[in-house]
Amino acid sequence: MQNIRNFVIIAHIDHGKSTLADRLLEATKTVEARRMKPQYLDQMELERERGITIKMAPVRMEYAPSAGERFVLNLIDTPGHSDFGYEVSRALTAVEGAVLLVDATRGIQAQTLANFHNAKKAGLAIIGAVNKIDLKPPAQDDVILDLATLLECSPDDILRVSGKTGEGVPELLRTIVRRVPPPTAKKRGLDVNAAGRARFPSSQAESEAKAENNAKQALIFDSRYDDHKGAIAFVRVTGGVFKAGEESALIAAGERCKVKEVGYFHPELQPTDALYPGDIGYIATGIKEPGKIRIGDTMASLVGGEVLPGYEEPRPVVFVAFYPAEESDHDDLKRALEELKLSDSALQFEPEVSEVLGRGFACGFLGRLHFEIVAERLVREFGLKTVNSFPSVTYRVKEGTAWRTVKHPKDFPDNPDQVLQPMVNVEVLTPPSYLGDVLRLKEKFHMSDIRTETFAHSVMVRSRMPLADLIRDFDDNLKSLSGGFASLNYELVEDAPGDVTKLEVLVANEVVPGLTRIVAEDEAEHEGRTMVERLKDLLPKQQFAQALQAKVRGRIIARETIPAQRKDVTGYLYGGDRTRKMKLWKKQKRGKERLKQSGRVELPPGVFKELLKK
Ligand SMILES: Nc1nc2c(ncn2[C@@H]2O[C@H](COP(=O)(O)OP(=O)(O)O)[C@@H](O)[C@H]2O)c(=O)[nH]1
Ligand SMILES: [Mg+2]
C-alpha cells in the first residue's frame, strides 16, 4: 500500500485535464504509442465528438522513478462541466490527492474554484499546476500568483506543464509521489456530498459474519453494464481482498453475488488475481438486473455488514419526458435507461403517459447538458429515437389552501394562488472587460441580488436567478459574450415565489399537451407568438384551414392560421358545367366539416421535435 498513489485531475472545462492524462499514460508507458490518440480516456464516442469529458475515467499506471523504485498510480480523469459535478464528487472520495489544473491562457475560472473547495473539503492533498505553457501565455505569471493565493502556497510550488508537449510532466509525476499520501486501509469519513446511510439491519446470525465482513470492504464509486459480465462495480477497496469466484454482497441493496472477475483499469478492463486494500479497480458481479447495483453502496463478503458512508442521492432539477419515436420501442427504452443509469447514476426516470405521444418516461437530470447527452446516448448507444418534451423544472403551486408539486407543465393550474419556483445562486467569474456585458444579462434571465467583488485578476459576479432561466441558455449567452472567458458555477437554493404562468398551444382549438410550457409572465406573450409562428412554418398544410393559438390564463394571446390546401376535386370536369362543379365543392365542404368535427389533428413527431429544439 505504501507504493500506491490515488489521485484525480480536476479543472474547469477545457483546461486540458484529459490531454494531460494522455501525457501521463505515455510517460508511464500505460498505453502503447501506436494506440495513443488525443484525450485517450474520453472513450465514449460522444465525448470524442464533442471534445468534452462526461464520465470520470479511472486508469492504473505503473511508474518507476528510478531503478528499484516502483509505484502504482491510480488516476481518475474527471469532467469539468458543472452538470457533471456529481461525477467529480464521487471521484474525490476514491482518492487521496488532486492535481488542480489551470489553463494559463484563461486563468482561474468558476469550476476551478468549485473543484478546489470540494477537494479541500474531502481532505485531499492538492497539487496546483498551470497548463498550456507551450503557448507562452503573457499572463502566465499572474495566473501562477492567483493559483498560489488560492492554494495558500508559494508560487514556486505551482507546477508548469504542457499537456501538448509533455513539458513538466516528469516533475509532475515526481511531485505526485512525494505529495499525495499513500492510501490507508480505512478511508476516513467521506465528507464530500456524503451522507451517513442508514445502517442495514443485521440479525443475530448475521452479526457473526461481521468480523469477516469488516475485513473485506469496498466503496462502489461508479458502475457499468456488460452483456457478459453483468453489472460491473468500480470500487475503491478499503479493506480485505477481493477475488474472482468468491461470494460477495452488496450491503445496502441486500444482494448477493458470485464475483465473476476482478481487475484494474488499463483503462480498458484488465483482469487480475485479486484487489487489495487501497486499490482502485473493478468487480464484475454477474448481476443481470442493472437496477440492483447502486453507486455509493458497499461491497463486502456477506450481507449484513457495515456500510461505508455512501453518497447523497443527487437531486435532479431538470425534467424532460421521453417518448419512443416508435411505440413498440417502449420496453427497449426502459431497458436502455436502466443500463444508462448504471454509468450515470444521477439519471432518474419513471413511467409517464401522454395523450399524443403514448407511453414514455419522465426523466430527471442534473442540468440541460446532462439531458442533451442522455438523449444523444440513447440514439448512439441503443439506436433509440425519442421525442422529448420541453425541459422543465418543478414548481410548488397553491390553489385554495392546498400546495402540490407540479413536475409536468400540463398539470400546472390556469390560475394558481401562489407559485414557488426553484432558484439558484450563480457565480460568474469574468475578466473585468466583460463585466458590463455580463450585467446586461440581468433582465433577460431575471437576475436579482447582484453583487460584484474582485477576485484575483477577475471579477466575481454573484446573483440569484430562477433555475428555469439558468437552463434556458445562460451558459451559452455567457460564453458567446465573453469568448469563453466568463465562466459559471451555481448551486440550488430554497424555492422562491415566481411570476410564471402556463403557456398552452392549441391546434384547431385543441390543447396540445406536449407543447405546454411554464414561462415567465413578462415573456409569455412573446414566447406564445414565437411558438405559433414556428408551428405555422412547420406544420404541413391540411385539408382545411386551421387555427393555431397560444393561450395564457384562459386568454388567447396569439393566433395564426394554416391555409387549407385546396384539393382540386373538379379537375377532371373540363368544360363549363358550373352546377356540377358547385355540387362537388359542396360535397368537399361537407367532408371537411366532418373532419373538423372529429377534431383529430395529427401533429407528426417530426414537428414536435423541431419545435422542442432549443
Ligand atoms: N496548446 C495547448 N493546448 C492544449 C494543452 N492541453 C490541452 N490543450 C487543448 O485544450 C483543449 C481542451 O483539452 P482537454 O484535454 O479536452 O480538456 P479537459 O476538458 O480539461 O479535459 C483541447 O483542444 C486540447 O488540445 C496544452 O498544454 N497546450
Ligand atoms: Mg476532459
From TrEMBL:
Localisation: Cell membrane
- Give the bilayer topology: Peripheral membrane protein
Keywords, alphabetical: Cell membrane, GTP-binding, Hydrolase, Membrane, Nucleotide-binding, Protein biosynthesis
Tell me which residues make up the Tr-type G domain. Answer: 2-184
What reactions does this protein catalyze? Answer: GTP + H2O = GDP + phosphate + H(+)
User: Sorted alphabetically, which InterPro entries does this protein's record hold?
Assistant: EF-4, EF-G-like_DII, EFG_II, EFG_III/V, EFG_V-like, G_TR_CS, LepA_C_sf, LepA_CTD
Binding residues for GTP, per the UniProt record? D14, H15, G16, K17, S18, T19, N131, K132, I133, D134
- Enzyme Commission number(s): 3.6.5.n1
Kindly list the biological process annotations in GO that this record carries.
Answer: positive regulation of translation
Where would you say this protein principally sits, based on its record?
Answer: membrane
> Would the keyword Protein biosynthesis turn up in this protein's UniProt record?
yes
Please indicate if the UniProt record lists Protein transport as a keyword.
Answer: no
Q: What class of enzyme is it?
A: hydrolase
Give the top-rank taxon of the lineage listed in the UniProt record for this protein: Bacteria
Instruction: Look up the record and report any one GO term of the cellular component aspect.
Output: plasma membrane
Q: What are this entry's molecular-function GO terms?
A: GTP binding; GTPase activity; ribosome binding; translation elongation factor activity
What function is annotated for this protein? Required for accurate and efficient protein synthesis under certain stress conditions. May act as a fidelity factor of the translation reaction, by catalyzing a one-codon backward translocation of tRNAs on improperly translocated ribosomes. Back-translocation proceeds from a post-translocation (POST) complex to a pre-translocation (PRE) complex, thus giving elongation factor G a second chance to translocate the tRNAs correctly. Binds to ribosomes in a GTP-dependent manner.
Give the similarity note. Answer: Belongs to the TRAFAC class translation factor GTPase superfamily. Classic translation factor GTPase family. LepA subfamily.
Task: Identify this protein by name.
Answer: Elongation factor 4
Gene name, Swiss-Prot/TrEMBL: lepA
